[in-house]
Amino acid sequence: xxxxxxxxDAAASRPRNIGGDGETAQSPTASRLIAVGVFGAPQGVxxxxxIKAHTTDPDALGAYGPLSDAAGTKFFKIVALxxxxxxxxxxxxxxxxxxxxxxxxxGVELFARRENLPAIAEDEFYHVDxxxxxxxxxxxxxxxxxxxxxxxxxxxILEIAPAAGGETRFLPFTKRVAPLIDxxxxxxxxxxxxxxxxxxxxxxx
Length: 205
Known about the structure:
Layout: E1 2-3, E2 33-42, E3 49-53, E4 67-68, E5 75-76, E6 78-85, E7 88-93, H1 99-103, E8 109-113, E9 124-125, H2 127-130, E10 134-136, E11 142-151, E12 156-162, E13 169-172, E14 180-182, E15 187-189, H3 193-204
Parallel strand pairs: 10-15
Antiparallel strand pairs: 1-9, 2-3, 2-8, 3-7, 4-5, 6-7, 10-11, 11-12, 12-13, 14-15
């Protein structure tokens, strides 16, 4: 999940991400799959298994409906879970009753359907909803397309593939740089930082 930083908190920490820091473009349909965790090592001998959560609330993993693998062909129903540490839970999966069966799940990524994820607050966005949006200027001119959201420790960053081709651009995901996000219209208005700096200089003058 990502949120736009306001001008005074551009380095503020963001909510934990659903979808990964390098979410790639996916279909705009509601049945998109979003990564919510990954199976870890077995816990004990009765089939319990650890899950490293990618979600804001790891305890809510069981509320997203049956989870699947990346291909959407294998499904896993969580019948019980408990918190182990900050981003790790121990789960009991339907049909998994011993350590050997739990061991076979290790390393398998878990995905939830987009429509099963909880509603989010205003000005928060799932990465998967932003990737693929057309980036346009305030005047409506094409700038490119959002291909990923990154985070290198100082806040979310939009990665934009230029409409004219060439290397991708990286811009901070702030209210000043991205003042308008139209999910339904599949576009995001971008004001490059150099234009913001130019306006500030004119105001000072």
